[in-house]
Amino acid sequence: MIFMTATAATPARGPHFAGPGAWFRGNLHCHTTESDGNVSPSDAAAGFANLGYDFLAITDHDRITDPATVDAHGLCLIPSVELTASAGLLGTEFHILGIGIDPSTVLPPRTSPGRVSSAWLRNQGAAVFAAHPHWSGLTVDDLMGLTIDGIEACNGGTTLDSLKGEAFTHWDEGLLRGASWTGLGTDDTHWHTLDRGTAWVMVRATERTPGALVSAIKAGNFYGTTGPAINDVHLEFVDDGRVLKVHVHTSPVAAMYLSGPGARSRHTFHETASAITSVTEVDPARMSITSHTFEVDLTVSGPARYAGRGTGQRHIRVSCMDWNRGRAWSNPLFF
Ligand SMILES: [Zn+2]
Ligand SMILES: [Zn+2]
To answer: In 214-282, which ranges are E strands?
Structure first.
């Protein structure tokens, strides 16, 4: 058995929480009257400006709504699109987000195979994500055939529509099969229901420009959330590489999770919260936690136990949940 001997302050690959720049809050999935949304592009920007967001990607169906034609209401608007593609293994058409694309670009037809459209978006320089995989009826095999940076782990709009907005299962299976996907939180706002401010991303970028934000998103320097903040996650190898320490810092939360393959996951609560027997005993002011260090003894489980069979790609994810059931999840940290 081979153990790493190097001590690393950052993962071999994965999100950098302490990189230069600042955190910016944004929604990367939104529709307007340019497709099937209920409000104009300028009113959509106003809606997210009112929520305190820093940036917005308007992703109308099969058309790029040019930010130059929109009153941004102070937001940074990233020219983007949601392409329709055909067809999943189970026969459904599905949707692919392209974040950061020249508004004058001529788009491929809606009948294009997803593997063609996703590769095409990548060639245009966009960050590429499979939208709402569960809602679309996509299999992980479908996703593995696409050229994508990641998937929507949580899509608030389809959660409200059908309770099919989550794809954490798809995500974790893909990671175990060797994909290195990141996981978005988005609204998929159509302005039909209360489909805004439900899930979003916090991006660590050097500046609030489309170029810097898209670069950071492609690099995985963001996390998804429906409420809490993940302020820092970093890895440290100690004891000559035999022990992996995962240092996590969040806003006040009820629980933190280290997600590894299968049963190799951990959780932690405040010491008093672990003994709760009734909801009436919950006292968030006293029972919240903001930091924890998970220790993984690699001599017990073995580093390979953190990889899928045959991939050699070891990873963990970090998540947390607040007392309102709001959740935040990091992108995978590979080690
Ligand atoms: Zn869609
Ligand atoms: Zn959509």
So the answer is: 222-225, 230-238, 243-253, 255-259, 266-269
